[in-house]
Write a sequence for this structure.
């Protein structure tokens, strides 16, 4: 194990983040903007962010919520629907308003009802995106009732993603929040137009954490955490330094009332302690020297952006860093991800 006490790296970015809106946005944004320079903002609001005008308005609401003294840039996305207008999308991309487009198979996850059922209906949009080099961010799970929830990512790769990439070989694709060995292998072997984000929590929990010794809704997210061999594959990929893999926390806050109920929401709130968790994981795997690639270099390189000029310093303390168990929002408390072990690294503020 490394004995480093401090580590200075380029300011990280979060390439997959849910900020929500209203009171929740106000409450959760500072956790991200304290640690990350930029974030790809997920468009699954209710109603979703589907047009350039929606993205512009949402961007302004986010910018208005950035605390004084925080230097943070939201990178906006559009939510792909079967009615998406290719011209509106291209104009939003060309003006620099949006950085990517998100594909949710209809019904795959929280607020995905307006997603895509028939992929032929979006082929003109995908062609246009390939032309202008706008990345497609894919929630890679099929929604077929006959496919087991633990197999939905692997089946998606075979049935949907691989055919789609063969049809649009020039399209840049990010496999969002991969959770399986199959996802790792497919992203790794997929050529320069393909990359994958990995969440903080999928590097730390497997499905036992959700189900053994009583059900733990706070560990429930989509894609659901898989068995241990998959977690280990994700760890190996993230810590390898390969440019194919980068941070996407998928920090997805829900109030405690919406998590702890008969039909609890999927999503884990990790924005506040992600960098501490990542430093812990990379140190444990003897790969602290690869943390900067994962959190600060590989993402911008794939998106064709420069890495952040600013640096952050992570400091390792002897005493555990105290994070609160929850943050308070006007909508109710939101539980912070508990990695199940003490954290010693923290971002010097
Ligand atoms: C996300 C959410 O709550 O919006 N939930 C989650 O479990 N990750 C949606 C998503 O990214 O799938
Ligand atoms: Zn997400």
């Amino acid at each position: 194990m490394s004995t480093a006490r401090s580590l200075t790296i380029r300011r990280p970015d979060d390439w997959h983040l849910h900020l929500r809106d209203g009171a929740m946005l106000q409450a959760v944004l500072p956790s991200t903007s304290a640690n990350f320079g930029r974030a790809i903002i997920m468009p699954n609001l209710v109603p979703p962010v589907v047009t350039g005008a929606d993205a512009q308005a949402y961007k302004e609401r986010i910018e208005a919520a950035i605390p004084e003294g925080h230097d943070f840039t939201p990178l906006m996305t559009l939510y792909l629907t079967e009615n998406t207008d290719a011209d509106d999308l291209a104009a939003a991309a060309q003006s620099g308003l949006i950085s990517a487009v998100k594909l949710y198979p209809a019904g795959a996850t929280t607020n995905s009802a307006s997603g895509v059922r028939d992929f032929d209906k979006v082929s003109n949009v995908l062609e246009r995106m390939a032309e202008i080099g706008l990345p497609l961010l894919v929630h890679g799970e099929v929604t077929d009732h006959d496919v087991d929830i633990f197999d939905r990512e692997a089946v998606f790769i075979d049935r949907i993603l691989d055919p789609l990439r063969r049809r649009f070989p020039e399209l840049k694709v990010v496999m969002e929040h991969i959770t399986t060995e199959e996802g790792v292998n497919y992203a790794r072997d997929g050529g320069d137009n393909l990359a994958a984000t990995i969440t903080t929590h999928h590097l730390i929990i497997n499905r036992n954490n959700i189900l053994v010794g009583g059900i733990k809704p706070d560990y429930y997210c989509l894609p659901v955490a898989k068995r241990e061999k998959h977690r280990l594959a994700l760890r190996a990929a993230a810590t390898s330094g390969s440019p194919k893999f980068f941070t996407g926390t998928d920090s997805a806050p829900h109030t405690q009332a919406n998590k702890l109920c008969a039909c609890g929401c999927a999503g884990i709130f990790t924005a506040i302690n992600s960098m501490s968790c990542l430093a812990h994981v990379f140190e444990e795997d003897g790969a602290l020297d690869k943390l900067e690639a994962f959190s600060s270099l590989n993402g911008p390189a794939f998106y064709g952006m420069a890495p952040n000029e600013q640096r952050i310093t992570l400091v390792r303390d002897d005493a555990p860093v105290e994070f609160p168990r929850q943050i308070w929002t006007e909508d109710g408390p939101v539980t912070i991800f508990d990695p199940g072990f003490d954290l010693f690294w923290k971002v010097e503020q």
